[in-house]
Amino acid sequence: MINKKPTFRKLTPSFGSSILVKQHVETIDKNGAYWHFHPELELIYINKGQGKTHIGNHLSYFNNSQLILIGSNLPHNGFTDRLTANGTETTIQFKSNFLGDDFLNVPEMANILSLFERAKKGIRFKVETKQKIGPKIEKLLEHGGLKRVLKFLEVLDYLAKTDDYTLLNADGFAFETEAQDSSKIDVIFKYVNKNFHNHITLDEIADEVSMTVPAFCRYFKKATGKTFTQLVNEYRVVHATKLLNESQKSIADICFECGFNNFSHFNKQFNEITGKSASNYRKEIKLIIQQKE
User: Fold this and answer.
1) Whole-prediction pTM value?
2) CB burial class (10 A; 0-12, 13-18, 19+) of residue 67?
3) Mean pLDDT confidence for 53-78
4) Is the torsion defined by CA of 122, 128, 132, 138 positive or negative?
5) Which residues contact 4 (CB under 8 A, 6 or more apart)?
6) Chain CA centroid to CA 256, Å
């Protein structure tokens, strides 16, 4: 059964470690490949495999290797439907401040901070970078402690400096927040995740974080760079892209299931956020699937 809305997933690195590194060497269970988000960034390297890339409103299929960096709280699905001969999928999950806030502010981290900013839209790295960095990612499993951290910083430094990449949501879509007062942001995200299909008033969301409406609006704009209404609309549109991909429901039905109570408003928001109409988005999905087959 496929989850209809993105699930908040809590990730816990092993004791004594600030980053979580794991590797799959067998066929991925599709039941575990569900629509979710988490505060941690995620770097995925697949050396040989086939599957679907669904990150934010981006959808494509792959039949080769993949190297992708996903920003925090950016909804995404599992990737690999099938690992081909000798194929492995290595995933690194980490918070942007995994070495502390002070370390983030040193001048030498400027390029890496820019990388994290671009990751808000999802980044797919191209062939040259995959060949260079993929093996280094796999070798992280051989190291522990400080050596793993140093080797990982080398990986991030290379990814931060290369221009051998594509942004997956380049049309201005970024479903992400700054890491300011993350406990309140987590409460807001979880509430939106649970209630986005209904009308959410500013009074009720402000009450969830024990703030007045004016204070909440100022706080949310400062923390995310967008209004709460913009955030909810983005959330609903991302959910709509998933339904357009995975169901045969009419676009009108999808509109109302995602929490929009006006079809023309849904079309306007979908176009502004994805850069195309819902009907064209669905046509592109069908074309991608036909090419895959």
Assistant:
1) 0.61
2) buried
3) 82
4) positive
5) 35, 239, 242, 243
6) 24
